[in-house]
Amino acid sequence: MDTWAAVFLLSHFLFTSSVQSAPTPSLPPAFQETAVRANALVEKILKILPAAHSATISIQGLSLDSSTQTSNLHLMEPSLGVPASPFLKQPSAHFTLDMCVSRMLAGVQMYQDLLEVLSTSLSGLEDLRSDLRDLLTHINKMKEVAQLEGDGSDQNPSLDLVSGLKDSYRVQVAAHLTLTQLRSFCHDLIRTFRVLPSYGAAGAR
């Protein structure tokens, strides 16, 4: 069994188990199946992120795990125009399935757009862009099969990244910050997929 198949089967097992133990009404089967595929894609994205970072960033000493230098570089975010990820919260009476899926969509779309801009100056981001495009398709299908209306969060804000990319160094810093934030957002997505069954059909219309 290859790694991709193993990840898919494990994701399916974990998601199905959590659905079976959830006390709330179950989500549509098509939603659950699509969520499993989307979760597997997020796992894949996390695995290829280090290679994408290595292929695009040549600033010495800068890696996905160089937290000290990254903290200093975050000071450049306002001038670079790198936006923050949408915040994904635990389910509650005030944070519905509608809101959750809308923010998932907004985040994936935002990173796809950021990588598209960065790809005009850097190579090595093609696989990430392709996987994010597929992930966006899966999350849109989740929204469709659960008949979610959205809360406006999936409307992607305009990006001002291009005006901040004035030289090679700033391009690479923007790419580093984007990939670092994307990794954190992917971890948030995985945690969210695990608790999706607890939303039940509360957010459906």
Automatic annotation (TrEMBL):
Keywords from UniProt, A to Z, are:
Signal
> In the record, which residues are listed under signal peptide?
1-21
Q: Where does this protein come from, organism-wise?
A: Austrofundulus limnaeus (Annual killifish)
Q: Which domain of life is it from?
A: Eukaryota
Q: Care to name a GO molecular-function term for this sequence?
A: cytokine activity
Database matches in InterPro entries: 4_helix_cytokine-like_core, GCSF/MGF
KW Signal (keyword) present:
yes
Q: Does the keyword Signal apply?
A: yes
- What is the official name of this protein in its record? Uncharacterized protein LOC106528090
What residue intervals traverse the membrane?
none
Q: Which GO BP terms apply?
A: positive regulation of myeloid cell differentiation
